[in-house]
Amino acid sequence: MNCYEYAQSVLISKPIKKSTSQEYLSVCRSLKMDQIEYPPNASQLTNLLETVFNVNTRRKCAIAIKSIYGIKVKVPSAVPLELDLPSFEELNEIIKGTRYEMYALLMLHAGFRFGDTLIKQPIKGNAILINRQKTIDNELTTAKSEGPVIVPDWLLERYKEWTPTHHYNTVYLGLKRLFKRNGMDFMTPHKLRHAYATYYSMKMPPEALRRQMRHKRITTAMQYYVHVREEDLINVMYK
């Protein structure tokens, strides 16, 4: 049995979300674990992880490896992304009236994760209750993090009348092309969630932002999602 086959067999019985299991298998595929006989040793896995250049990606891989094989490997600390995001107003103008506008609005104005936008979530009062998502394979799973998200009235009214019908890849690639046409090759749909956190960090207390983002810790939102520019600070200080 190779290490990938072992991962497939063990993840079936692990008490983790289906989306997490799929992510772990994706890590195994990217690391070519099918070329290593089970059981692996710590040295093999450490050397394999060192070939992953990006620190945050290496961290994700190390966490998956530890969970699957129960072998102690070094898990590097996450490094906050340094993003020079377009302004909130620019992004609003770019997505307005486009085919995938509603998906983008939910990320930009409500902080949805991309997979959350592909499912019609239940509504309660002035909140959308996130509980499901679609994966890159367009499979329906539980959401990465569940909970209510308060959304603007105008967006909620539009959401009530809207039903998502597009495939994961269709929307993802459609938004990527939209950004590229507007000179933003670096933008991805997920970065709209970063733009949401950055914009609303100036308008609500950190704890409120944490709840809206559905993070366990305030530091996750503030350290990894909020990218405040000098002009943002000037706008706040001299408003």
Please describe what this structure looks like.
The protein has a three-stranded antiparallel β-sheet. It has helices at residues 3-11, 18-30, 42-49, 55-69, 88-95, 101-110, 114-117, 153-160, 168-181, 190-200, 206-213, 218-224, 230-237; strands at residues 123-124, 127-134, 140-150. It has 239 residues and is mainly α. The longest helix is centred in the N-terminal third of the chain and has 15 residues, at 55-69. The relative contact order is 0.11. The chain folds into two domains: 3-69, no CATH class; 88-237, Intergrase catalytic core (hpI Integrase, Chain A, Orthogonal Bundle), CATH 1.10.443.10. It contains 13 helices and three strands, in the order αααααααβββαααααα. It starts with a helix and ends with a helix.
Secondary structure blueprint with pairings:
Layout: H1 3-11, H2 18-30, H3 42-49, H4 55-69, H5 88-95, H6 101-110, H7 114-117, E1 123-124, E2 127-134, E3 140-150, H8 153-160, H9 168-181, H10 190-200, H11 206-213, H12 218-224, H13 230-237
Antiparallel strand pairs: 1-2, 2-3
Helix pairs in contact: 1-2, 2-4, 5-6, 6-10, 11-12
Strand content: 5-15%
Count of separate DSSP helical elements: 13
Give start-end ranges of low-pLDDT stretches: 229-239
Total separate domains: 2
What's the CATH C level of the largest domain?
Answer: Mainly Alpha
Sheet having the most strands:
3 strands, antiparallel
CATH topology of the largest domain: hpI Integrase, Chain A
Mean pLDDT: 87
* Strand order, sheet with most strands: 1-2-3
Percentage of helical residues? 40-55%
In the CATH hierarchy, the architecture of the largest domain is Orthogonal Bundle
Distance between the termini: 64 Å
CATH superfamily of the largest domain: Intergrase catalytic core
Number of strands: 3
Envelope shape:
elongated
User: H/E series, N to C?
Assistant: HHHHHHHEEEHHHHHH
Rg value: 20 Å
Structural class: mainly alpha
